[in-house]
Specification:
The complex is a heterodimer. By secondary structure, chain A is mainly α. Chain A contains 3 helices and no strands. Chain B is an all-alpha fold. The relative contact order of chain B is 0.07. The chains are: A mainly alpha, B mainly alpha.
């Protein structure tokens, strides 16, 4: 970690975040949207670990723990919701799940 | 070009490429499996940054937990009669424009800011420090997260459960 500037890691996580947003915006399957959200959470974690490592302070890694826990809870609940929706409507296409549309 | 550089570029390339495959692949199963490589790439970057414990937790939680959960989700939400794993895309052009603008802002902020970095002496292992922090300074949040996980698991089980007729 000595030779690589911190910006490289930040740019990497910026790219990952953008890829995640692309996935959320353009994909139609709810599960792929879910995977893209996991990508974005991972890029945020990468930023936290980068700052923590380059400042020599471990507290940032504690926050990564918290983010991971919330991500796990979110994955469990979200997939349960997707499965419940699939049972009712027989699709996970987010264009077809528009019952609340005005 | 030192060994650190080579390892960094290798893991960065793995992460970004497999991330692209996750988003662009037409087959959900391919997306799920390339997400595996993304998680491994990020774990490698964590090791490079000296965060050994976080890297192990990343592999345990993401690869061992969340990815398996996602694969089960893929399995459970495909019609058995009509195997429709392929999915399409929507709004590609406006999405690309919006993401391009956002990525430009993000990357310019990241590159042009004068970050106050110091050549830190990383501890050999972070596990001891992390454990101390978790049971002293952050004990309240730690306990709350335990309760949150319990609630989330109970909620997930009760949402996904089939109702009995």
């Amino acid at each position: 970690m000595t030779s690589i500037p911190m910006e490289y890691y930040l740019v990497l996580s910026g790219f990952m975040f953008s890829v995640g947003i692309v996935g959320v915006l353009i994909r139609r399957n709810a599960i792929v949207v879910f995977m893209s959200i996991e990508l974005m959470l991972n890029s945020a974690n990468l930023t936290l670990v980068t700052f923590s490592s380059y400042l020599g302070n471990v507290t940032g890694q504690v926050f990564v723990f918290f983010v991971m826990t919330v991500a796990a809870a979110e994955a469990a609940v979200g997939l349960a919701i997707i499965i419940a929706i699939f049972r009712n409507k027989l699709t996970v296409d987010i264009d077809k799940i528009n019952i609340f549309k005005w | 070009m030192s060994l650190y550089d080579i390892i960094f570029y290798l893991f960065a390339a793995i992460t970004i490429l497999s991330g692209f495959i996750v988003v662009t692949s037409k087959n959900i199963v391919y997306s799920a499996f390339s997400l595996l490589f993304t998680f491994f790439g990020v774990a490698g970057i964590y090791v490079l940054l000296g965060a050994d414990f976080i890297a192990i937790v990343q592999i345990l939680v993401y690869v061992g937990g969340i990815l398996i959960l996602l694969l089960f989700g893929v399995m459970l939400t495909n019609k058995i009669t009509n195997v429709d794993i392929r999915t399409g895309t929507i709004h590609v052009l406006p999405g690309a424009v919006a993401v391009g603008v956002l990525m430009g802002l993000l990357l310019s902020a990241m590159v042009w800011t004068e970050w106050k970095t110091q050549p830190s002496e990383t501890p050999v292992t972070t596990t001891v420090t992390l454990g101390r922090l978790l049971i002293t300074d952050y004990i309240l949040i730690f306990e709350l997260l335990g309760i949150l996980l319990l609630i989330a698991l109970i909620g997930a089980a009760s949402i996904a459960r089939r109702e009995q007729e």
